[in-house]
TrEMBL record:
Gene Ontology process terms (BP): carbohydrate biosynthetic process
Ranges in coiled-coil conformation: none
UniProt organism field: Rathayibacter toxicus
Stretches assigned to the AFP-like domain: 292-351
Gene Ontology molecular-function annotations: N-acylneuraminate-9-phosphate synthase activity
Protein name: N-acetylneuraminate synthase
Protein backbone atom coordinates (compact mmCIF):
# COMPACT_ATOMS: atom_id res chain seq x y z
CA UNK A 1 0.00 0.00 0.00
CA UNK A 2 1.30 3.46 -0.89
CA UNK A 3 1.83 5.66 2.17
CA UNK A 4 3.88 8.70 3.12
CA UNK A 5 3.97 10.13 6.64
CA UNK A 6 4.68 13.83 7.13
CA UNK A 7 4.75 14.91 10.75
CA UNK A 8 1.89 13.00 12.34
CA UNK A 9 -0.15 12.70 9.13
CA UNK A 10 -0.19 9.47 7.13
CA UNK A 11 -1.05 10.09 3.49
CA UNK A 12 -2.52 7.15 1.57
CA UNK A 13 -5.18 6.24 -0.97
CA UNK A 14 -7.69 6.15 1.90
CA UNK A 15 -6.72 9.48 3.41
CA UNK A 16 -8.00 13.00 3.02
CA UNK A 17 -6.01 15.30 0.76
CA UNK A 18 -2.81 16.63 2.29
CA UNK A 19 -3.16 20.28 1.30
CA UNK A 20 -0.02 22.41 1.01
CA UNK A 21 -0.36 26.18 1.01
CA UNK A 22 2.65 27.15 -1.11
CA UNK A 23 3.61 30.59 0.16
CA UNK A 24 6.93 30.61 -1.63
CA UNK A 25 8.08 34.22 -1.45
CA UNK A 26 4.59 35.73 -1.32
CA UNK A 27 5.60 37.07 2.10
CA UNK A 28 7.77 39.65 0.30
CA UNK A 29 10.60 39.11 2.76
CA UNK A 30 8.48 40.33 5.68
CA UNK A 31 8.19 38.11 8.75
CA UNK A 32 4.87 39.58 9.89
CA UNK A 33 3.36 38.90 6.47
CA UNK A 34 4.66 35.34 6.58
CA UNK A 35 3.01 34.80 9.96
CA UNK A 36 -0.26 36.24 8.67
CA UNK A 37 -0.08 33.79 5.76
CA UNK A 38 0.61 30.89 8.13
CA UNK A 39 -2.38 31.86 10.26
CA UNK A 40 -4.69 32.27 7.28
CA UNK A 41 -3.63 28.91 5.82
CA UNK A 42 -4.24 27.13 9.13
CA UNK A 43 -7.67 28.75 9.45
CA UNK A 44 -8.49 27.71 5.86
CA UNK A 45 -7.82 24.07 6.77
CA UNK A 46 -4.49 23.53 5.00
CA UNK A 47 -2.33 20.66 6.20
CA UNK A 48 0.97 22.46 5.65
CA UNK A 49 2.56 25.76 4.73
CA UNK A 50 5.66 25.90 2.56
CA UNK A 51 8.35 28.45 1.77
CA UNK A 52 11.29 28.38 -0.65
CA UNK A 53 14.96 28.46 0.34
CA UNK A 54 17.78 29.44 -2.01
CA UNK A 55 21.46 30.09 -1.49
CA UNK A 56 21.58 32.59 -4.31
CA UNK A 57 25.35 32.56 -4.79
CA UNK A 58 25.28 28.78 -4.98
CA UNK A 59 22.28 28.70 -7.28
CA UNK A 60 22.91 31.50 -9.82
CA UNK A 61 25.88 32.63 -11.86
CA UNK A 62 27.33 36.07 -11.21
CA UNK A 63 26.02 37.18 -14.57
CA UNK A 64 22.46 36.32 -13.58
CA UNK A 65 22.79 37.91 -10.14
CA UNK A 66 24.18 41.15 -11.56
CA UNK A 67 21.51 41.62 -14.21
CA UNK A 68 19.30 44.66 -13.90
CA UNK A 69 15.90 43.70 -12.51
CA UNK A 70 13.32 46.43 -12.58
CA UNK A 71 9.58 46.49 -12.79
CA UNK A 72 6.51 46.20 -10.62
CA UNK A 73 7.54 42.89 -9.03
CA UNK A 74 11.15 43.83 -8.27
CA UNK A 75 12.52 43.99 -4.72
CA UNK A 76 15.99 45.17 -5.81
CA UNK A 77 17.89 46.91 -8.60
CA UNK A 78 19.56 43.66 -9.70
CA UNK A 79 18.21 40.13 -9.76
CA UNK A 80 20.62 39.20 -6.97
CA UNK A 81 19.41 42.05 -4.76
CA UNK A 82 15.83 41.10 -5.57
CA UNK A 83 16.37 37.48 -4.54
CA UNK A 84 18.26 38.36 -1.36
CA UNK A 85 15.47 40.71 -0.26
CA UNK A 86 13.06 37.76 -0.32
CA UNK A 87 15.19 35.30 1.65
CA UNK A 88 14.71 34.45 5.31
CA UNK A 89 17.65 33.36 7.46
CA UNK A 90 17.92 30.91 10.32
CA UNK A 91 16.34 33.15 12.96
CA UNK A 92 13.25 33.78 10.82
CA UNK A 93 12.93 30.09 9.94
CA UNK A 94 13.18 28.99 13.56
CA UNK A 95 10.66 31.64 14.59
CA UNK A 96 8.26 30.46 11.88
CA UNK A 97 8.76 26.80 12.77
CA UNK A 98 7.77 27.52 16.36
CA UNK A 99 4.84 29.63 15.18
CA UNK A 100 3.58 26.86 12.86
CA UNK A 101 3.79 24.36 15.72
CA UNK A 102 1.54 26.59 17.83
CA UNK A 103 -0.93 26.79 14.95
CA UNK A 104 -0.90 23.01 14.55
CA UNK A 105 0.15 23.12 10.91
CA UNK A 106 3.14 21.43 9.25
CA UNK A 107 5.86 23.73 7.94
CA UNK A 108 8.62 22.92 5.49
CA UNK A 109 10.39 24.44 2.51
CA UNK A 110 11.74 23.81 -0.97
CA UNK A 111 15.52 23.38 -1.04
CA UNK A 112 16.81 24.73 -4.35
CA UNK A 113 20.45 23.68 -3.85
CA UNK A 114 22.62 21.54 -1.61
CA UNK A 115 23.65 24.43 0.64
CA UNK A 116 19.96 25.17 1.22
CA UNK A 117 19.34 21.46 1.80
CA UNK A 118 21.95 21.47 4.57
CA UNK A 119 20.32 24.60 6.00
CA UNK A 120 16.89 22.95 5.99
CA UNK A 121 18.21 19.78 7.60
CA UNK A 122 19.53 21.85 10.49
CA UNK A 123 16.01 23.07 11.26
CA UNK A 124 14.40 19.68 11.82
CA UNK A 125 11.46 20.36 9.49
CA UNK A 126 9.16 17.39 8.76
CA UNK A 127 9.58 17.30 4.96
CA UNK A 128 11.60 18.59 2.01
CA UNK A 129 10.18 19.80 -1.29
CA UNK A 130 12.10 19.43 -4.54
CA UNK A 131 10.99 21.77 -7.30
CA UNK A 132 10.22 20.72 -10.87
CA UNK A 133 13.41 22.40 -12.04
CA UNK A 134 15.46 19.94 -10.00
CA UNK A 135 13.74 16.74 -11.12
CA UNK A 136 16.75 16.09 -13.38
CA UNK A 137 19.25 17.30 -10.76
CA UNK A 138 20.16 13.80 -9.66
CA UNK A 139 22.87 14.85 -7.16
CA UNK A 140 20.39 17.05 -5.27
CA UNK A 141 17.66 14.39 -5.43
CA UNK A 142 19.98 11.74 -4.03
CA UNK A 143 21.36 14.05 -1.35
CA UNK A 144 17.83 14.87 -0.20
CA UNK A 145 16.80 11.22 -0.39
CA UNK A 146 19.69 10.08 1.78
CA UNK A 147 18.55 12.34 4.63
CA UNK A 148 15.62 10.02 5.30
CA UNK A 149 13.31 13.03 5.60
CA UNK A 150 10.05 12.63 3.62
CA UNK A 151 10.25 14.37 0.25
CA UNK A 152 7.70 15.82 -2.14
CA UNK A 153 8.92 16.01 -5.73
CA UNK A 154 7.25 18.01 -8.51
CA UNK A 155 7.50 17.00 -12.16
CA UNK A 156 6.54 20.08 -14.18
CA UNK A 157 8.19 20.30 -17.60
CA UNK A 158 9.48 16.73 -17.43
CA UNK A 159 9.25 13.84 -19.85
CA UNK A 160 8.15 10.44 -18.58
CA UNK A 161 11.73 9.27 -19.05
CA UNK A 162 12.90 12.11 -16.77
CA UNK A 163 10.39 11.06 -14.12
CA UNK A 164 11.34 7.38 -14.27
CA UNK A 165 15.03 8.30 -13.96
CA UNK A 166 14.30 10.49 -10.93
CA UNK A 167 12.15 7.84 -9.24
CA UNK A 168 14.83 5.21 -9.82
CA UNK A 169 17.47 7.52 -8.31
CA UNK A 170 15.30 8.15 -5.25
CA UNK A 171 14.48 4.47 -4.84
CA UNK A 172 18.18 3.72 -5.15
CA UNK A 173 18.98 5.73 -2.00
CA UNK A 174 15.95 4.50 -0.07
CA UNK A 175 14.13 7.83 -0.21
CA UNK A 176 10.59 8.27 1.11
CA UNK A 177 8.75 10.56 -1.27
CA UNK A 178 5.55 11.62 -2.97
CA UNK A 179 5.43 12.52 -6.67
CA UNK A 180 3.34 15.41 -7.97
CA UNK A 181 1.97 15.89 -11.47
CA UNK A 182 2.56 19.52 -12.37
CA UNK A 183 2.48 21.82 -15.39
CA UNK A 184 5.12 24.53 -15.29
CA UNK A 185 3.10 27.37 -16.79
CA UNK A 186 1.85 30.30 -14.72
CA UNK A 187 -1.11 30.23 -14.76
CA UNK A 188 -1.73 26.89 -16.46
CA UNK A 189 -4.65 26.48 -18.85
CA UNK A 190 -7.06 23.53 -18.68
CA UNK A 191 -5.75 21.88 -21.83
CA UNK A 192 -2.19 21.98 -20.43
CA UNK A 193 -2.88 20.13 -17.19
CA UNK A 194 -3.00 16.49 -18.38
CA UNK A 195 -4.52 15.19 -15.16
CA UNK A 196 -4.52 11.66 -16.56
CA UNK A 197 -0.78 11.66 -15.88
CA UNK A 198 -1.93 10.99 -12.31
CA UNK A 199 -3.30 7.66 -13.61
CA UNK A 200 0.02 6.97 -15.34
CA UNK A 201 2.03 7.68 -12.20
CA UNK A 202 -0.24 5.53 -10.05
CA UNK A 203 0.14 2.63 -12.48
CA UNK A 204 3.92 2.94 -12.92
CA UNK A 205 4.74 3.67 -9.27
CA UNK A 206 2.33 1.56 -7.19
CA UNK A 207 4.18 2.17 -3.92
CA UNK A 208 4.42 5.96 -4.30
CA UNK A 209 1.88 8.51 -3.07
CA UNK A 210 0.86 10.65 -6.03
CA UNK A 211 -0.28 14.26 -5.89
CA UNK A 212 -0.93 17.38 -7.92
CA UNK A 213 0.74 20.77 -7.80
CA UNK A 214 -1.58 23.24 -9.49
CA UNK A 215 -0.81 26.58 -11.08
CA UNK A 216 -4.24 26.77 -12.69
CA UNK A 217 -7.05 29.06 -11.60
CA UNK A 218 -9.86 26.57 -12.28
CA UNK A 219 -12.07 25.66 -9.33
CA UNK A 220 -12.93 22.12 -10.44
CA UNK A 221 -9.43 20.86 -11.23
CA UNK A 222 -8.26 20.05 -7.71
CA UNK A 223 -11.37 18.02 -6.93
CA UNK A 224 -10.84 16.16 -10.21
CA UNK A 225 -7.22 15.49 -9.26
CA UNK A 226 -8.29 14.01 -5.93
CA UNK A 227 -10.87 11.83 -7.67
CA UNK A 228 -8.13 10.49 -9.96
CA UNK A 229 -6.04 9.54 -6.93
CA UNK A 230 -3.95 12.61 -6.05
CA UNK A 231 -3.59 12.67 -2.28
CA UNK A 232 -1.16 15.60 -1.99
CA UNK A 233 -2.59 18.88 -3.29
CA UNK A 234 -0.34 21.93 -3.53
CA UNK A 235 -1.58 25.44 -4.35
CA UNK A 236 0.14 28.80 -4.21
CA UNK A 237 -1.28 30.98 -1.46
CA UNK A 238 -1.58 34.73 -1.00
CA UNK A 239 -3.40 37.33 1.06
CA UNK A 240 -3.78 39.62 -1.97
CA UNK A 241 -3.78 38.63 -5.64
CA UNK A 242 -2.70 42.16 -6.56
CA UNK A 243 0.33 42.30 -4.26
CA UNK A 244 3.85 42.85 -5.59
CA UNK A 245 5.41 39.60 -6.77
CA UNK A 246 5.11 37.26 -9.75
CA UNK A 247 3.12 34.49 -8.01
CA UNK A 248 0.25 36.36 -6.39
CA UNK A 249 -2.05 36.57 -9.40
CA UNK A 250 -2.48 32.79 -9.76
CA UNK A 251 -2.42 32.05 -6.01
CA UNK A 252 -5.44 31.17 -3.89
CA UNK A 253 -6.76 33.59 -1.30
CA UNK A 254 -7.75 32.32 2.17
CA UNK A 255 -11.41 32.24 1.12
CA UNK A 256 -10.56 30.21 -1.99
CA UNK A 257 -8.38 27.76 -0.09
CA UNK A 258 -11.03 27.23 2.58
CA UNK A 259 -13.58 26.44 -0.14
CA UNK A 260 -11.11 24.09 -1.84
CA UNK A 261 -10.48 22.18 1.40
CA UNK A 262 -14.23 21.89 1.97
CA UNK A 263 -14.72 20.63 -1.60
CA UNK A 264 -11.92 18.08 -1.23
CA UNK A 265 -13.43 16.80 2.01
CA UNK A 266 -16.84 16.59 0.34
CA UNK A 267 -15.56 14.63 -2.66
CA UNK A 268 -13.76 12.22 -0.34
CA UNK A 269 -17.05 11.59 1.46
CA UNK A 270 -18.86 11.31 -1.87
CA UNK A 271 -16.42 8.72 -3.25
CA UNK A 272 -17.37 6.50 -0.32
CA UNK A 273 -17.25 2.73 -0.71
CA UNK A 274 -16.77 0.65 -3.89
CA UNK A 275 -19.40 -1.78 -2.57
CA UNK A 276 -22.85 -1.15 -4.06
CA UNK A 277 -25.50 -1.47 -1.37
CA UNK A 278 -28.71 0.13 -0.21
CA UNK A 279 -28.27 2.67 2.55
CA UNK A 280 -30.92 3.23 5.25
CA UNK A 281 -31.62 6.78 4.09
CA UNK A 282 -32.91 5.42 0.76
CA UNK A 283 -35.75 3.45 2.36
CA UNK A 284 -38.41 6.22 2.37
CA UNK A 285 -37.79 7.11 -1.27
CA UNK A 286 -37.80 3.47 -2.34
CA UNK A 287 -41.10 2.94 -0.54
CA UNK A 288 -42.59 5.65 -2.75
CA UNK A 289 -40.92 4.63 -6.02
CA UNK A 290 -40.50 0.85 -5.95
CA UNK A 291 -43.02 -1.44 -7.60
CA UNK A 292 -44.47 -4.68 -6.29
CA UNK A 293 -46.66 -7.33 -7.90
CA UNK A 294 -50.39 -6.61 -7.54
CA UNK A 295 -53.33 -8.72 -8.66
CA UNK A 296 -55.46 -7.76 -11.67
CA UNK A 297 -59.11 -8.50 -10.91
CA UNK A 298 -60.57 -10.73 -8.20
CA UNK A 299 -59.65 -14.42 -8.01
CA UNK A 300 -60.71 -17.28 -5.73
CA UNK A 301 -58.40 -19.44 -3.68
CA UNK A 302 -56.80 -22.23 -5.69
CA UNK A 303 -56.41 -20.16 -8.86
CA UNK A 304 -53.14 -20.83 -10.68
CA UNK A 305 -51.19 -17.60 -11.08
CA UNK A 306 -50.72 -16.71 -14.75
CA UNK A 307 -48.93 -13.72 -16.38
CA UNK A 308 -52.11 -11.79 -17.16
CA UNK A 309 -53.21 -11.87 -13.52
CA UNK A 310 -50.41 -9.63 -12.25
CA UNK A 311 -49.14 -6.08 -12.75
CA UNK A 312 -46.14 -4.14 -11.40
CA UNK A 313 -47.40 -1.09 -9.52
CA UNK A 314 -46.31 1.31 -6.82
CA UNK A 315 -48.43 0.61 -3.76
CA UNK A 316 -46.39 2.00 -0.88
CA UNK A 317 -46.68 -1.38 0.80
CA UNK A 318 -44.23 -4.29 1.11
CA UNK A 319 -44.65 -7.12 -1.35
CA UNK A 320 -42.98 -9.22 -4.04
CA UNK A 321 -40.63 -7.45 -6.43
CA UNK A 322 -41.38 -7.76 -10.16
CA UNK A 323 -37.94 -9.35 -10.58
CA UNK A 324 -39.41 -12.47 -8.90
CA UNK A 325 -42.31 -12.79 -11.37
CA UNK A 326 -41.03 -16.04 -12.87
CA UNK A 327 -40.95 -17.64 -9.43
CA UNK A 328 -44.57 -16.65 -8.75
CA UNK A 329 -46.07 -17.95 -11.97
CA UNK A 330 -47.57 -21.43 -11.60
CA UNK A 331 -48.24 -21.13 -7.88
CA UNK A 332 -51.81 -21.33 -6.54
CA UNK A 333 -53.57 -18.68 -4.52
CA UNK A 334 -53.90 -19.66 -0.86
CA UNK A 335 -56.91 -17.38 -0.34
CA UNK A 336 -59.41 -15.24 -2.21
CA UNK A 337 -57.86 -11.99 -3.45
CA UNK A 338 -59.42 -8.75 -4.68
CA UNK A 339 -58.39 -6.40 -7.49
CA UNK A 340 -55.04 -4.60 -6.78
CA UNK A 341 -54.29 -6.82 -3.82
CA UNK A 342 -50.55 -6.53 -3.07
CA UNK A 343 -49.30 -10.06 -3.49
CA UNK A 344 -47.19 -11.64 -0.71
CA UNK A 345 -45.49 -14.99 -0.45
CA UNK A 346 -48.06 -15.97 2.20
CA UNK A 347 -50.76 -15.64 -0.50
CA UNK A 348 -49.19 -18.46 -2.54
CA UNK A 349 -49.08 -22.24 -2.40
CA UNK A 350 -46.37 -24.06 -4.29
CA UNK A 351 -47.20 -27.63 -5.22
CA UNK A 352 -44.57 -30.20 -6.14
CA UNK A 353 -45.12 -33.37 -8.12
Amino acid sequence: MRTLTIGTTEISDRSAAYVIAEIGHNHGGDLATAKALFTAAAEAGASAVKLQKRDNRELFTKEVLNKSYTGRNSYGATYGEHREALEFGESEYRHLAAFAAKLGIDFFTTAFDEVSLDFVMGLGLPAIKITSGDLTNTPLLEAAGRTGVPMIVSSGGASLSDVVTAVNALDGVGARFGLLQCTATYPAQAEQLNLHVIDTYRRLFPNTVIGYSGHDVLKSVLVSAYTLGARIIERHFTLDKCARGSDHHFSQTPVEMKKMVEDLDAVRAALGSPVKRQIPEETPALAKMSKTLVVRGSHPAGTVVEPGMLAAKTSGRPGIRPAALAEVLGARLARDVDDEHVLRLSDLIYTTL
